[in-house]
Design a protein that fits this description.
Strand content: 15-25%
Strand order of the largest sheet: 5-6-7-14-15-16-17-25-26-28
Number of strands: 32
Shape: globular
Number of helices: 26
Radius of gyration: 27 Å
Length: 928
């Protein structure tokens, strides 16, 4: 039976129910009475023998909220009415949340109080159920009592993958269906016209507007180009799909399919009329296009870069304006934290000595390309228009938000002599979660870990028999913007001298109210104009000529290719060393940083198809769509090109330690997004891990503590506030309001500058006033410090390249507010460098002038005190204005993490932590 949620550190959601008029107790109970019987399949318990496991019980993982992401209609109604949770829907959320207050006393022995035991297999007394899906004799799915994670064991390759597909559908069918429709640009027609659904489908379809033929071509090309492994990947995918579809048929006939199908009008709860469409192989590519766009496609932003460069040149003149722009861009800042810190250089996307082919727009001529046409009803109202604008800005930005961290320490610095890793992806928080846990054991496959739902034919992040791996988003530039000259009309362009018609790709969506989504009826057409240089994203003039700016991504039309690398990572006969690990991830064309640990070695590799650009092309700006400026050896028909060799990608084996929090990979390796300067959230890991390594004797507990401590740190407080206070305290603070604020900030800083509760579950921050003051002060001080010197136009342009702040209560790209990930993008490096320069301290990679108070300590001090007084006078309600979840002034709630509902089950919010969603703690004791 469903159980009531334990309270631990959860706060019950205040959001109104998504099912209006549906939650009257009497009607709920009446519905439940007729629906309780087909809740689940019955399976007998059986003992499972673990496969070869060289971790010695020292591998752990966690993935909130829980493994079970499917719920029947009855379970959804119970959750909406009474807050009860289906079994294993939320049992990993409490341990995950509790680490925030539990980490100070953490020991190796207590790690699994906050994590799961990630050993292979299930002890006989911990087997909850054993299932032979569809009656097959070549595969079993065992689920453990504690978390309900599926442990899939097959005697044939086909059976193993069939079981993986069946288990995925058991745990994430509704979510898989949602995201195949996102990838196809059909979410609103499938799930309803809520503005969040409109924004989600628009954001992703703009970057990957594929037809069915495009999706199939990706599969054909990936198979044809990868020999035996390509054929095996196709066979695995087909077996996986057979398992998914077998579960669809079984759950449909047994009436235990996800209740969202009823609530969105796809199934009838009484007659069972309606269908759940089978999955097909092109759906997997649609799913992969969403994941790739969200987490693994660095680049873009060239038009925004051009706009800010022109603003700088307008203010200062071409030469000085370019210098100012380069200083704020921080392409290769000498003070930036590096993942490969042993001095190796990996030049990529650096500034050319003599730039060629730049196609900068005429000032004021840039307009973004419309995506929405023929809108009606709620598809074209004011809310829809605002949603579309936000989705466009997010899709075209070079900033990829909330993207994971890693702490890996060599055995030379550990107590045991074995490497230790604490790492995982920061993929946002959803209900159900985008990722799912699983163990797969079969011919050529032996792994446990997390995979994106619907793509779980292999473990994508996890552990093998004697090694573990994980990834963070890297963000190097694999997207370039081309200016195509128009001819004949706005929908023809010159391609190699020939006037060529743009291809038109459309998706027409219409929706009407359902029980799940009461949004009034509406419709629109999403229309993308595609060229051989990619989709059109902007229109402008260059030197008076009309152009369309297009974006060409090296992974465009190649989302399916990375399946080979993931297949290799799961193959114990392939990955046997750091070198073979690096070889495997070289087959992944997404822009990721990959990390590896076994019992003796650690390794790192930066993946992605980095195009070889023409000599003189500056990757920061748009260039003319002409053969001289195209990628070398580019073939438009297949979008293939020459790519930089593996040796040119940042890589390393057995460095003393590695840290990554989406910071700069290595010296001279430029990333597309701004903000790789002297202060970056990567410093929060670097400082802690470097100190641990210097002391030696690192343990799983101490490395996990370092991660957890950084997860509560306010980057501004830890790395910038000390210098701000130096300026303020350069003479006695006589103003009583300012003095009181300084005292509170200093007290908080002395206590560690963390955003942490007074006690577990208090939902009140220690040093709450100081936190409120800094949250209010930061945007005020940045504006007062820089806008006078830069001028309003250039200051505004730079804020479009890099937001001023990313405090925990701010919205975060596609995941919205309450998303956990924080302090990735902001002006903290600029403030740090400027304040240190004003203080007369040494600054490498300094800004071109001193901005605060025009460079004098006294004038800078006046600005800081004035803005501090204003900030101190702001009430909590002004700083934290409230939303549908939180009352105005509720500081803890404003920061809190919410599992964003993608289905019918809701969870309580938890206290803020800045850490991976899925996370592993590993230390292997031996090797094959």
């Amino acid at each position: 039976m469903p159980r009531r949620t334990p309270r631990f550190t959860l706060d019950r959601l205040r959001t109104p129910g998504r099912f209006p008029g549906f939650l009257k107790t009497a009607s709920v109970c009446a519905l439940i009475a007729g629906l309780l019987s087909p809740l689940s399949q019955v399976a007998a318990a059986a003992e499972v023998t673990a496969a070869n496991d060289y971790c010695g019980g020292q591998c752990s993982d966690i993935l909130p909220p829980g493994e079970n992401g499917n719920a029947t209609l009855a379970q959804i109604l119970l959750n909406q009415a009474f807050g009860t949770q289906p079994e294993h829907a939320e049992d990993q959320l409490g341990p995950y949340a509790n680490l925030a207050k539990g980490y100070p006393t953490l020991t190796n022995a207590t790690i699994n109080t906050f994590f799961n035991d990630a050993s292979f297999g299930v002890a006989s007394d911990q087997v909850a159920s054993t299932l032979s899906p569809a009656g097959r004799s070549d595969v079993t799915i065992v689920r453990d009592k504690k978390t309900g994670v599926p442990h899939i064991t097959g005697t044939t390759r086909y059976g193993t993958e069939f079981g993986a597909g069946y288990a995925a559908a058991q745990d994430r069918l509704w979510l898989m269906d949602v995201f195949r429709h996102v990838g196809r640009g059909q979410l609103t027609a499938f799930a309803g016209g809520d503005p969040s659904n409109q924004g989600l489908e628009q954001q992703f379809w703009r970057n990957a507007p594929y037809t069915e033929a495009d999706l199939q071509a990706q599969i054909d090309n990936a198979v044809a180009g990868n020999g035996t492994r390509g054929q095996q990947a196709l066979a695995d995918a087909n077996a996986y799909l057979a398992g998914v579809n077998a579960y669809i048929d079984a759950s449909d006939s047994g009436r235990y399919f996800p209740g969202e199908y009823v609530l969105t009008g796809h199934k009838d709860s009484i007659t069972n009329a309606g269908t759940i469409d089978h999955f097909k192989i092109t759906d997997l590519v649609a799913l992969a296009s969403v994941i790739g766009a969200l987490f693994g496609s660095g680049g873009g932003g060239e038009v925004n870069n051009a706009v800010s460069l022109l603003a700088a040149q307008e203010k200062y003149g071409v030469e000085q304006g370019t210098q100012v722009w380069e200083a704020f861009r921080e392409r290769n800042d000498p003070e930036a934290v590096l993942t490969v810190h042993d001095g190796q250089s990996f030049p990529y996307a650096t500034k050319p000595a003599s730039p060629q082919g730049a196609a900068l727009p005429d000032t004021g001529s840039v307009t973004s390309e419309p995506l929405i046409y023929d809108a009606t009803g709620t598809g074209g109202d004011a809310t829809a228009t605002a949603t579309s604008a936000t989705a466009t800005a997010t899709a075209l930005s070079s900033a990829r938000r909330g993207m994971s961290n890693a702490l890996v320490v060599s055995g030379q610095a550990t107590a045991s002599g074995h490497p230790i890793a604490v790492f995982g992806p920061q993929t946002g928080y959803f209900a159900p979660q985008l990722l799912m846990l699983q163990e797969i054991q079969g011919p050529g496959i032996s792994a446990r870990g997390a995979s994106f739902a619907g793509l779980s034919m292999y473990v994508e992040l996890g552990r093998g028999q004697d090694y573990a791996w994980s990834a963070t988003t890297s963000g190097q530039d694999i997207i370039d913007t081309y200016a195509v000259e128009l001819c004949q009309d706005d929908y023809h362009y010159l391609f190699h001298g020939t006037c060529t018609a743009m291809d038109v790709v459309e998706q027409k969506n219409a929706w009407k109210p359902t029980t799940a989504d009461g949004t009034a009826a509406g419709s629109y057409t999403m229309r993308v104009y595609r060229t051989k240089y990619g989709p059109v994203e902007y229109r402008a003039t260059v030197g008076g000529k009309k152009v369309a700016y297009t974006t060409l991504r090296s992974s465009f039309m190649h989302e399916a290719d990375s399946i080979i690398g993931f297949q290799m990572l799961n193959d114990p006969d392939y990955v046997k060393s750091p070198q073979t690990f690096q070889s495997a991830v070289q087959h992944i064309n997404y822009t990721f940083n990959w990390f590896y640990a076994d019992s003796t070695h650690t390794a790192y590799y930066n993946s992605g198809d980095n195009p070889v650009r023409a000599s003189g092309v500056d990757a920061e700006f748009p260039v003319w769509a002409q053969p001289a400026y195209e990628w070398r050896s580019w073939v438009p028909a297949t979008n293939t090109a020459a790519y930089t060799p593996a040796s040119a990608h940042p890589n390393s084996i057995d460095q003393d330690y590695y840290v990554s929090w989406n910071n700069k990979q290595a010296k001279d390796y430029s990333t597309a997004s701004w903000g790789d300067g002297s202060v970056h959230r990567g410093n929060l890991l670097e400082d802690r891990v470097k100190k641990l390594v210097a002391a030696g004797g690192v343990t799983r507990a101490s490395l996990t503590k370092a991660m957890a401590d950084a997860a509560l740190a306010d980057l501004r407080a830890e790395d910038v506030l000390p210098d701000l206070l130096k300026v303020i305290n350069s003479s006695t603070v006589t103003d009583s309001t300012a003095a009181a604020a300084v005292t509170k900030l200093q007290t908080w800083l002395t206590a560690g500058g963390r955003r942490t509760e007074t006690s577990a579950g208090s939902k009140t921050y220690a040093d709450a006033d100081a936190i409120r003051i800094l949250d209010a002060w930061w945007p005020l001080l940045v504006k007062a410090e820089f806008e006078p010197g830069l001028g309003t136009g250039l200051y505004t342009a730079f804020t479009a390249n890099l937001p001023i702040d990313e405090a925990p209560s701010a919205a975060h790209g596609p995941t919205g507010a309450h998303a956990g990930s924080s302090f990735q993008y902001g002006w903290w490096s600029y403030v740090d460098k400027d304040i240190r320069a004003v203080l007369g301290e040494s600054v490498q990679g300094a800004l071109p002038q001193k901005y605060c108070g025009s460079g004098t300590v006294s004038s800078c001090r006046d600005i800081l005190i004035s803005t501090l007084k204003t900030a101190a006078g702001k009430t909590a309600a002004q700083v934290y204005p409230g939303d549908t979840l939180c009352a105005a002034g509720n500081q803890w709630c404003a920061d809190s993490i919410v599992q964003r509902t993608l289905g019918g089950i809701k969870h309580g919010n938890i206290g803020w932590q800045n850490r991976p969603t899925f996370q592993q703690v590993v230390e292997f004791t031996s090797h094959r």
